[in-house]
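Before any further analysis, backbone shapes were mapped to integers, which produced the following:

***
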Amino acid sequence: MADTQTTPTLTVYADPVCPFCYLGRASLEEYLNAADDPPAVQWRQFDLRGYKRAPDGTISEDVDDGKDEAYFEQARQNVERLREKYDVEMIDFEDVPETDSWDAQQASLFVEQTESAETFRQFYEGLFAAYWRDGRDIADPDVLVAVAEESGVDDPGSIRDAITDDALESELRERFAEGQQLGISGVPTFVYGDHAARGAVPPDHLARLVGDQISASES
């Protein structure tokens, strides 16, 4: 993958409905806490289920993506293994609500543009916790407002207008397209310089990615 990042920033492409993004965040925190000179981290939205989205905005589960029951069983096993490895508080894979993250990501783009970097980080990471730790439906505007309030957003109620804003919707589509153009095909993907690590990779892989510019991957 070329022409990704040229600044010493670790960019993380993610979608809050992806369990491996939530688990990858735990690995990232472990790496950052241990690093002597940790890089700045920049979260980037990615539309994991976009290929399933119908023209009316609904997610169609009838799309054939080649993922059968065996695939999902393996995914569940991997989630459980990583949950134990990183000691992550997380509800069962089957207990999270089936939801579309579009509004949550549009809300996050709004927070990114209007709040401090720290508030944006807390809001975006708060979406993961709301979904995977607490089992809240992050497509619900009330939940998004609550996450905004918990994250210190100045006017949490402004989230309601943000998720129906046409300009923000257009910008979010551009953000998703940008990721695809850079070669991002799945999440989480950690990008540093001209190299990337995809999946909930261990902290030592992130250290090599940042320190030695070595590509790493984990299924």
